[in-house]
Amino acid sequence: MARAAVPRRLTWHVATVAAVKDETVSARTLVLDVPGWPGHLAGQHVDVKLTAEDGYSAQRSYSIASAPDGSRLELTVQRIADGEVSPYLTEVLAPGDPLELRGPIGGWFVWRPDSPAPLLLLAGGSGVVPLMAMIRASTTVPVRLIYSARTPADVIYAPELTERSLVSPLTLTYLYTRSPGSGRNAALSPAPDAARDGAGAVAARSGRIDAAVIDGAAFSPDEKPAIFVCGPSGFVEAAADLLTAAGHPAATIKTERFGPTS
Amino acid sequence: MNVISRGFSGRRRPEGQKLPPGQYLEKDFPVLSAGPTPRVRTDRWEFTITTETGDGRRWDWAEFTALPAEDITVDIHCVTKWSKLGTKWRGVSCDVLLDGVATNAGYVMARSYGDYTTNLPLPDLRNGKAWVAYQYDGAPLHPEHGGPARLLVPHLYFWKSAKWVTGLTLMTHDEHGFWEELGYHDYGDPWREQRYQGD
Questions:
Q1: ipTM surpasses cut 0.90
Q2: I want to staple A23 with a disulfide (CB 3.0 to 4.6 A). Which of A27, A90, A194, B157 is the partner?
């Protein structure tokens, strides 16, 4: 059993928004200064609390996108059109505003930089956020990211991922579930070849995750990767089933699923 | 301490619809689990109760589903903030399972296929407060939601309602289960917002 990563009482911190950064038309990164932040591990999340004038408050959980870095914290929030909290965080909250949060939370879906195993990351949509913290925290182990997004425009962190794939052992495979030409009659491009790690190895294809993608883009079970899967429940369920069918032991696959987080 | 969020008004619930603090209403049924979904065949399924002296009881699927069952309609509250009201289940009361079991234990470790565990006080499983459920909304419980059978302890945060449950180990001293070892609360009362250790 993993050791406890949340040993202390989790107190609320008042963060200050230092900057905001639009990642896509519907995802925004909040750069926060959190005095007294106890530090975190890649993969953990925070609880955010908003309070209205009359004392009404709402809480949601958001994954941390940044590698551990002193009192700085980055959250990337995907806006849900009819949501209660995410529209505020992505459209109203501005630099200088305070934001209440507590964490870090979650001691299971975490990656430690001293872990020597190759890192296999599978992201569905904004499920890439906690995986990005792992990519940002990793420097030496080979990393393969399989990232399913609706269209190329929905890919969060695209420029940074490309840049990192050029300078570190990071291999990218994008799956576009609704890209132009992914209709009924569209021929799928061949499964990506991930023979080379890093050096700008990027592959893309249309369609959803399937056995051919796992076969072509994932590490093999013999390479004993540490596996993290994050995304909507349907994606995580499909990916985890494909990985176990490909021979990866269930105990090596850590998942984090989210339903609609409004 | 509450910091006012400039320009936030929020979405209040209709009068009389009360949720535990920090929760929001969910219409869907989100899934949360730490790893791949175990697929457990009912012809290989078993449920055991083991006491602190090592005595035990065991049911296979046919025996278990022949026990007196109840229809249960309850609100459920997930520590990840969503609550779902009026969920409908069918299952066997833990009172039936524990009836006649001789024990001095004060605690229980629920054990699941896939090695998930969660700890609870034994009294929280008695007196009509907990079930082992195998139907949801009139249909067999889907593996994603914990089928063939899951613990159902709706008065505590939903991670205590262990999916894929296969047994209860009665304990004289409390021990941490899976999420509790990782910092989540030992008891987990949503109305007292006991999400994490120390809450």
A1: no
A2: A27
